[in-house]
Amino acid sequence: MTVGPGSDGRRDAVRRLSTGVTVLTVRHGDVVHGTTVSSVLAVSRDPLLVGVSLRRGSLTSDLAVTSGMFVVNVLSRRQALLADWFADPDRPAGLAQFDRLDWRPDAGCGAPRLAGAVAAMSCRLQARLTTGDHDLHVAEVVEGTVGTGSPLISYAAGVHGAELHEVTRRRGRRPLTGAAATGLD
C-alpha cells in the first residue's frame, strides 16, 4: 500500500494505531454530556497528564474548557454498545443520555463515572491547543480508579474486544540479530 500526500494510505496507516475506546463525560452546572473518544494518550508521568483530542467547536470540547474538569471512562470489551451510544448524534441531550445507564457522579466534578469501565480518571484541564480540526486538551489526572476486565480498542477503523496476552520481551541492551531484528522472534 502506498503512503504519501493525497493517498488513502496515510489514513489507513493512522488507523493502525490501536487505542483504547473511552467515553469522556463532563458536567457544568445543570449541563451534562458524554461522547465517545478514541484519542486519549498519556502525556507525562510527573505531573500525571493525559491528552484528549476532541473535535473543535464540539459541545464536549467547549464544556471541558468551561467546566475545567472531566472524566475519562475507559470502556471494557463488553461495553461496545456504550461506545456506539455516545457516538450517536441522535441520542437524547443532557442527563437523559444517561437515563438507562448505571453510573455515579464523580466526587470532584459531578460528571458521570460509568459502571463496568476498566478505569476512570478525573481530570483537571491544564491547556487546550488547537491542532487541525481538533482541540488537544491536556489535563492532570487528579483521581483514578481501576476496574476489571479487558479493554475495548479501536483498530483499523473498527472497534474490537481485546484479549490481552503477555509477550516475551528482551531485557538489556543487546543488539538485535536474525529473526529478532524483524520482530519474528
UniProtKB/TrEMBL annotation:
This is Flavin reductase like domain-containing protein. It comes from Parafrankia colletiae. InterPro entries: Flavin_Rdtase-like_dom, NADH-dep_flavin_reductase, Split_barrel_FMN-bd. One of its GO terms (molecular function) is FMN binding. Keywords: Oxidoreductase. Residues 14-161 form the Flavin reductase like domain. Pfam families: Flavin_Reduct.
